[in-house]
Amino acid sequence: ALMTRPPLVNEQLAWQLLHSLEIVDLDHKLTPHGRQAYELGCHPRLAHMLLKAKRLASELQQPDLASLACLLAAILEARGLPKRGVDMQDYLRLACQGAMGSQAKQWQRKLAVSADLGPVASHAHSKDIGLLLALAYPDRIAKARGVEGFLLANGTGVTLDASDSLSLSPWLVVADFQETEGHKAGRVYLASAFDVSLLQSQLAFLVERQDVGGWDEAKGRFYAERQQRLGQIVLSSEPLKQPERAQITQALLGQIRNKGLSLLGWDDNIRQLQIRLSLLAQLDSSEAWPAVDDATLLASLESWLSPYLASVSNLQQLAKIDCYSLLRNRLSWEQQQRLDKLLPQHWPLATGTNA
Questions:
Q1: Global confidence as pTM
Q2: Whole-number pLDDT of residue 186
Q3: What is the tens place of the pLDDT at every residue in 218-260?
Q4: Considering the chain, what percentage of its residues have pLDDT values greater than 70?
């Protein structure tokens, strides 16, 4: 029991992480994998990495992989590491000694693996380090974004010193970083280079296929594409030849809400109709006059406009919709006659002309 209940969003994110690490099921109940992780007595991320590393060691016929995971976990659980840069590989030999070495050996015993930690540290390959860290931190796989540092899969931006050996890597796995209030990006403390080809082999399960649609501001039309994504990072995309009509309609409605009703060719004739109906709503209580002010219309686009967007795909077609008739036809025939009688648009003059 906690003295203060955590914010709901934090709790939801925590459950999502535990589920992605296979430690709990969708009902938040401990899985068999989760029970094994608990027995290791370390952070759930690291426990997941250790257990997966043992299985991968057998599948890939790389017996040292599990012991390498033990060294990485010891580094990540250690306190007061000497500053040797960001690259996790530079701390491996240090992890073979003292308290870190003892902790790594304890996890070796719990995993029932045996290997001399010294040679494991000396022969470790950055690809294997990146693979293991990605198992623990799948949401922190990061792609370089030019001078702006890196984008994590969870959508967070991070940076590291330009002098650091990993600063020019196209991909990283970030094991430790700190977000600072008032700064656009977090600071990376520990990471490893990441071989993106792993997303096509051992880590292919992390990649999701998603069909997305949006609005091309430059061309003024809808676009749709099929993306391969790692969280917030788009790995590849290809245009969809036949996007769903619902996607196009939602994109059009989104543009109207963002840019306003002027996209619909909103002219003085429509404005006058809005004013006349607003006046009647105030002055004529004998009828239930519909609200057609901008706020109401924008909030109810799905009901009055969506049915007429079936063949509309760009802004030019959108502007040609006869919105005056759409709004006027929301009135019954009797209401239309009453509108023209009480608030006529023209007044007959004695000369026979209409003003």
A1: 0.74
A2: 87
A3: 777 777 888 999 999 999 999 887 777 888 888 888 889 988 9
A4: 99
Give per-residue pLDDT as tens, 60-83.
999 999 999 999 999 999 988 898
Average pLDDT in the 310-337 region? 91
Distances (CA, A) of 105 to 38, 68, 118, 144: 18, 11, 12, 35
Tokens at residue 350, please?
Answer: 């004695």
Starting at the edge strand that comes first in sequence, how are the strands of the sheet with 233-239 ordered?
208-216, 221-230, 233-239
Mean pLDDT along residues 305-334: 91
pLDDT of 240 reads: 81
Amino acid (one-letter) located at 19:
H
Cα–Cα dist 140/20, whole Å: 13
Three-state SS string over the chain comes to CCCCCCCHHHHHHHHHHHHHCCCECCCCCECHHHHHHHHHCCCHHHHHHHHHHHHHHHHCCCCHHHHHHHHHHHHHHCCCCCCCCCEHHHHCCHHHCHHHHHHHHHHHHHHCCCCCHHHHHHHCCHHHHHHHHHHHCHHHEEEECHHHCEEECCCCEEECCCCCCCCCCCEEEEEEEECCCCCCCEEEEEEEECCHHHHHCCCHHHCEEEEEEEEECCCCEEEEEEEEEECCEEEEEEECCCCCHHHHHHHHHHHHHHHCHHHHCCCHHHHHHHHHHHHHHHHCCCCCCCCCCHHHHHHCHHHHCHHHCCCCCEHHHHHCCCHHHHHHCCCCHHHHHHHHHHCCCCCECCCCCEC
